[in-house]
Design a protein that fits this description.
Bound molecules: zinc ion
Number of helices: 11
Strand content: under 5%
Number of domains: 2
Order of helices and strands: HHHHEEHHHHHHH
Number of strands: 2
CATH class of the largest domain: Mainly Alpha
Oligomer: single chain
Structural class: mainly alpha
Radius of gyration: 20 Å
Largest sheet: 2 strands, antiparallel
Amino acid sequence: MGSAGSTKGRVDHRSIVAKLRADILVGTIPPASRVNIAQLASQLAVSTTPVREALRELQGDNLLLGTSNKGYETTKTLDAQGVRALFEFRLLVEPWSARLAASDSLRNPSPLLRSEIQSFNSHARSMQQEMIDHDSRFHTAILQSSENSFVLDAYQRSHCHLHLFRICGNDWDWEASLNQHGKIADAIETLDPQGAEDAMKEHLQFSYLGFLNYVSEASGSRKLSAPAPARMVPGAHA
Ligand SMILES: [Zn+2]
């Protein structure tokens, strides 16, 4: 018949990578578990070679680890310590880049930030996906405007939105986040460096506590209402 061969021809590398990435992000392939390459190949009606190539690529996102027998296992989702480390990093670079964005009228990213906020779809099928995608584009636009390739590269290598997506629930307070993005965009648009820096710090601390609650709920700990640790307080390292 040759029908299996023609099916194989239609599944290209990009779509295999996208499918496996989505399976890991939504937990269809659970965290910290071995990846069954033969089973995935059979599901996708391809040989194991393109599956292995896709898995190798996903290692770069820090979603997979190679195992000693040439296999792969998914990484754990972030725990409380991982969330803190990620937000400590973000608090170092993002308030700085927001300040810089508000200091330079030529590289001011506010038109981009405005259109990003306006195009947010509050009726999206998955608010979790809509919020994470919007958030990723919004924060990246501010960092990009710094034109500092080392900072941008470090931020992109953290794959922070991929990792936050894995722990984020559907009950994320996207309205509060959107309002905070509005405050940041306002300060950048009106060339208010201090206002932009403060608004970004406030927003990251709000997000930090939100994500910390997700991981403490997942591990069965009490829901957090306490303020962020002293090392995360705005201005503490200024
Ligand atoms: Zn945000």
